[in-house]
Amino acid sequence: MAGYISRAQQKRDHHGQRDICAADGHPGTAEDPLVKTTDGWRVHLSDTTNPLSGFYGQKQEG
Asked: Cα–Cα distance between 53 and 29 in angstroms, integer?
């Protein structure tokens, strides 16, 4: 997962929360993996594709 990671997400990563969604606190799964947002957070892919989510359309490309 190359790309931009925010400082706050880096802190989460270093405290064992790399595989935990920043939006809902649940782990990523094969069906709904974590992706990085344009602001550098790790959230479920579904958070970036759901129009009702605050992360809608914010998936980093690449």
From this structure: 18
